[in-house]
Amino acid sequence: MRALTGIAMRSIMLAHLRAIGFVVFLLLAIAFSIDLSENLTGLQDKAAETGQPLWRILFPYLGYRGVDILTRLLPMACLAGAFAAELLRFQRLEPVILAAAGATPALALSALLVVGVITGTVQAALEGWLRPAAVFAQVDLGVGSYARRFERKEKDSRWFVADDRALRATVQPGQPPTLRDVVLFEGIRRAALSSLIVAESARPGADPQSWVLKEARRWEAGPNGNLRPEPPQSLTIRFPLTSVHLTYLDVGGFYIPQEALRRITAVESDPRFADRQTALVRRYAAFFLPGVFALLGASLAQTGTTARRFNPLRLVALAVTGYISVVLIKIFWSLGEFGAIAPLWASLASLLIAGTLAAILQIRQL
To answer: Is the keyword S-adenosyl-L-methionine in the record (predicted)?
Structure first.
């Protein structure tokens, strides 16, 4: 009996994985068609510019885009794939046959647990490592929307504020990036500035948040509040800004490599701290995302049948419910990125809603 149970469980697991894989294939095909309609000319221009055959640019580009697209669409694929797999199993009367043989609902739930572990491992790897690497490989390739958005070029004068200090500088890319035309204002929350520092350039110092200023001139406030100049010199200052911040200055947190993201979130004065912290927390929650939505998809499909027959209207309503639950993922992530809710809630809210709904549907079927 145990051997037969194992065979049945593997059959259910493979049915779900095949359905999820098919949905992934469809979604990637649609996404590639849309993407190439917008970027094929750019790919051809890049091939002509570098003197390479088009396929040498096209295939790596599709690989990088595929990783990025799969990261975003895998939860949806798990929901739709599990939904379709359960409908196909119902059509073949598999649940009825297994129930007649004495199998409990735990058999299908165990198979879904294995599916969740497999897809969750893939999702966690995509979120934490593969997607950031693919995005910046595309930037280095020089083609596509990410290459335009994250191009490594000199950035216009920027402002960085921490406590009662404000720093204005032009960011120059490099390894590590440096600052040019630096102006540091101290005492900005008071009636008058306590000091002003102007420097030709700044490079990272020995400590993560230290900066070595070249040709720096300092003005200190005297007793009457007037700023008095000091001779040019080299200064080392501490400011809550690191070279990693500058490298990923205009990059969304979910695109930043894992180790760099950890170093950035260690500095709480970062103006985009909520965005980066949400991205970090959601990577830890990513492992559970596909499994929970696969369980929800299967539960919705099992609820959409009546007396061994499909109920089309109910299935449509349940499919819409599932889609809304997937949309909630992005809504809560966006709320976390803008600091409207805590990063932990932003990452877990959609999981809790989907998991609770799936649990309610499973309990109703007992």
So the answer is: no
Q: Are 91 and 84 contacting, i.e. CB atoms less than 8 angstroms apart?
A: no
- Per-residue tokens: 338: 């803008």
Q: Compute the distance between CA of residue 87 and CA of residue 91 in angstroms, rounded to an integer.
A: 6
**322 inside domain:** yes
Cis peptide before 176 (omega within 30 of 0): yes
Give, in degrees to the nearest 5, the angle at Cα 126 between 37 and 357: 95
Angstrom distance (rounded) from CA 21 to CA 115: 12
**Same domain, yes or no: 14 and 131:** yes
> Do 112 and 220 fall into the same domain?
no
Q: Do 321 and 288 belong together in one domain?
A: yes
Q: Which of 250, 269, 300 is the last residue of a domain?
A: 250
Domain around 224: 155-250
Q: How many domains does the chain have?
A: 2
Q: Would you tell me the crossing angle of helices 2-50 and 54-91 to the nearest 10 degrees?
A: 160
- Among 206, 297, 208, smallest CA distance to 246 is for 208
- pLDDT, one tens digit per residue, over 95-153 is 878 877 777 788 889 999 999 999 999 999 999 999 999 999 999 999 989 998 888 88
> Position of tokens 């420097």?
199
Angle between helices 258-265 and 273-285 (to 10 degrees): 130
